[in-house]
Amino acid sequence: MSRSEWESLCDGCAQCCLIKLEGDDGEGIFQTDVACRLLDLESCRCTRYQERSRLVPNCVTLHPGNVSQLPWMPKTCAYRLLSEGKELFDWHPLISGDPESVHAAGASVRDAVISETEVAADELEDHIIYKVEVEEV
Ligand code: SF4
Ligand code: SF4
Question: Which PANTHER family does its entry note (predicted)?
Fold first, then answer.
């Protein structure tokens, strides 16, 4: 698969751009409804995609070898589905032909999250929405 084919698999949901917190003493990983400061909340796209790794050191660059090692990736993520041998949802832009279909289906973070720029670091815990289910993926 070429780099551009790999990139085109992303459905643009931006769920992976939400801040996650690690609990103390192996309590697990907790998902918040707070988005990375570089995410455009309307388009659900990274505003500095080419520089993301430098600007946000914990921004993970996905590749075929690490997807299955990231339990916090949403179950709807196309890369996760692919690594689990599952089919894409019919709202995936590659199936629907419409980049807006991921938002229309309610699968993206649009209108559901706030930006990190609006939340103090010590208030992030108040934004936990669920504990990440860790399973073999
Ligand atoms: S969760 Fe997966 S499909 Fe959604 S934006 Fe992230 S990489 Fe793309
Ligand atoms: S740097 Fe960009 S791609 Fe990485 S988490 Fe932030 S918004 Fe998402």
Answer: UPF0260 PROTEIN YCGN
